[in-house]
Inverse folding.
């Protein structure tokens, strides 16, 4: 569970334990002491590449924070199952992009920016395509950005994405 020190991460640890899973918690080095109180069998520093590289085979990754570390752990799961690039044996690789734009404004949702997020995810996941990309809670004017959606269509045609969509902040935007 990446981010077990937060509320969502704590819930993920509790749920996994209730389902009989052996839980490895991943947090920043500075959060290690706090994370050890949550109940995972092992705690590793997600900002320590050696610790991540030395993890045992993983069966699943629950991500409560997002970012590079979770994607690298997911890549490890895919590799450990022999399901890297091309053949994922039914595993769907989905991610989101855009929420970390700074500032988080409609003008930031350019195809160049989103392509940058996609390329970084592909690198982190060590794969050639994402099954699903969601634009993560963009400002409402983004829904009308034909240039952006044409660019996303080009990413699909290029084989970098299979599908894309938009997550919304509230039901009225759906």
């Amino acid at each position: 569970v990446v981010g077990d020190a937060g509320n969502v991460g704590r819930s993920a640890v509790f749920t996994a334990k209730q389902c009989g899973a052996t839980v490895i918690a991943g947090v920043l080095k500075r959060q290690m002491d706090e994370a050890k109180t949550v109940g995972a069998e092992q705690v590793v520093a997600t900002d320590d590449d050696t610790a991540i590289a030395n993890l045992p085979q993983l069966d699943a990754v629950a991500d409560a924070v997002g970012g590079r570390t979770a994607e690298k752990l997911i890549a490890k799961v895919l590799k450990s199952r022999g399901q890297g690039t091309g053949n994922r044996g039914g595993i769907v690789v989905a991610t989101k992009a855009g929420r970390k734009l700074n500032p988080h404004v409609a003008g930031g949702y350019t195809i160049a920016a989103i392509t940058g997020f996609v390329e970084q995810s592909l690198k982190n996941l060590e794969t050639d395509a994402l099954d699903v990309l969601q634009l993560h809670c963009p400002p409402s004017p983004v829904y009308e950005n034909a240039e952006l959606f044409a660019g996303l269509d080009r990413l699909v045609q290029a084989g970098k994405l299979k599908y894309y969509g938009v997550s919304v902040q509230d039901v009225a935007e759906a």
Remarks:
- Helices lie at 7-18, 32-35, 49-53, 68-80, 111-125, 146-157.
- The longest strand covers residues 130-136.
